[in-house]
Amino acid sequence: MPRRHGKKYLEALKKIDRQRLYTPEEAIKLLKETSFTTFDPTVEVHLRLGIDPRHADQTIRTTVSLPHGTGKTVRVLVFAQGEAAQAAREAGADFVGADDLIARIDKENFFDFDIAIATPDMMGKVGRIGRKLGPRGLMPNPKSGTVVQPEDLPRTIREVRGGRVEFRNDKTGLLHVAVGKLSFNEPQIYENIAALMEAVKAARPAAAKGTYIRSVTFTSTMSPGIRVDPSAAQAMKPAV
């Protein structure tokens, strides 16, 4: 059954030329003009990539530090023990522990956190609850920068609290990345998206052939998507 949209969505859609590829600046301005929610919506970027996600050497999983953050409070859990655990607490982690946290997640289904970080010596134990963390995208992984040496814990915790986000392609080769809130001003949204585009370009797999970034769409929660010229999106430059 085709999806039915409400009157406000259809009114917003009238403001967008579906046949046109907008510049990033035009699209960001339109995001502001077409939002109709009563809450502060999340701004998202959707990219179709020229990769074959069936092949491991063409998958993308990396992170980007958004210069203006995500606009949301990030709850951080750290699997660590001894001095590393103390360093994590001092750095402001919301939950810190070892066997106790693992048991809480395993037996009580505790998932009241947004990101999990672990020191390498904990990964053998954390792996036992991978079946619970993995499907929720919470399993620490070196590729996403969430398995770190004890001395790097304070910096990593600051980064994830300050706007570092992980992104990975889905099984169809698409990327869906939240880049902040619509209440951010236009330059802030632009700079966050520019940082994402730089990270996506840097993550291009060597095995990917042909056009890498095939389509770019900006949108916000519940609002219509706005198609952006892929060349213009790739030319976006983060603030120096």
TrEMBL record:
Family, as annotated: Belongs to the universal ribosomal protein uL1 family.
The entry's keywords:
Repressor, Ribonucleoprotein, Ribosomal protein, RNA-binding, rRNA-binding, Translation regulation, tRNA-binding
In alphabetical order, the GO MF annotations are:
rRNA binding; structural constituent of ribosome; tRNA binding
InterPro entries noted in UniProt: Ribosom_uL1_bac-type, Ribosomal_uL1, Ribosomal_uL1-like, Ribosomal_uL1/biogenesis, Ribosomal_uL1_3-a/b-sand, Ribosomal_uL1_CS
The protein's name in its UniProt record: Large ribosomal subunit protein uL1
Q: Which organism is it from?
A: Roseiflexus castenholzii (strain DSM 13941 / HLO8)
GO BP annotations listed: regulation of translation; translation
Q: Give the organism's phylogenetic lineage.
A: Bacteria, Bacillati, Chloroflexota, Chloroflexia, Chloroflexales
- What cellular component terms from Gene Ontology apply here? large ribosomal subunit
Q: What does this protein do?
A: Binds directly to 23S rRNA. The L1 stalk is quite mobile in the ribosome, and is involved in E site tRNA release.
**Designated gene of the protein:** rplA
- Assembly and partners? Part of the 50S ribosomal subunit.
